[in-house]
Write a structure and sequence with these properties.
The chain is α+β, with helices and mostly antiparallel strands. The protein has helices at 2-16, 31-47, 50-57, 62-75, 129-135, and strands at residues 78-81, 85-88, 92-101, 106-113, 118-125. The chain is 45% helix and 25% strand. Strands 1, 2, 3, 4 and 5 form a five-stranded antiparallel sheet that branches. The chain is globular and about 45 Å long.
């Protein structure tokens, strides 16, 4: 357990301490590095127990962990994800991938700001049109 926590702490340190790229409106992002970090984050979350995730909630990662747990609660256990698509704007970059969960597929989105710092993480369940209409 300590090994996983140490590994995750290193990954989070890398995510949050990336050097800023450019403060102009034409920010240059290192997409490959961001994709590697996103993959590492998802891989770490998927290998952690509920107790380990709870331990990280106390370390400023509450929002990301809550989003991960909400995805698990709504979609079942995480299985895998595909390649990331990258959408870049002048002040952010969004990485999006389709993820396979036990009960329902989802879309995982990770957003980085212009300083290459992770801003948000979401796991949104995919519902069929019939399911959406039934909820209405």
């Amino acid at each position: 357990m300590k090994k996983r926590i140490s590994l995750f702490a290193v990954i989070l340190a890398l995510v949050f301490t990336l050097s800023g790229c450019s403060s102009s409106s034409d920010a240059n992002y290192d997409e490959d590095t961001m994709i590697e970090q996103a993959d590492a984050l998802i891989s770490s979350f998927s290998q952690m127990s509920t107790e380990e995730l709870d331990a990280f909630k106390a370390s400023n990662c509450t929002t990301m962990i809550d989003a991960w747990e909400a995805g698990i609660e709504e979609c079942g256990d995480y299985i895998s994800h595909g390649d990331f698509t990258v959408e870049q704007s002048s002040d952010s970059i969004m990485l999006t991938t389709d993820a396979e969960y036990e009960d329902r597929d989802a879309e995982i989105t990770i957003e980085f700001n212009e300083k290459s710092e992770m801003e948000s993480f979401t796991a949104a369940a995919k519902y069929s049109t019939g399911e959406i209409l039934q909820k209405a």
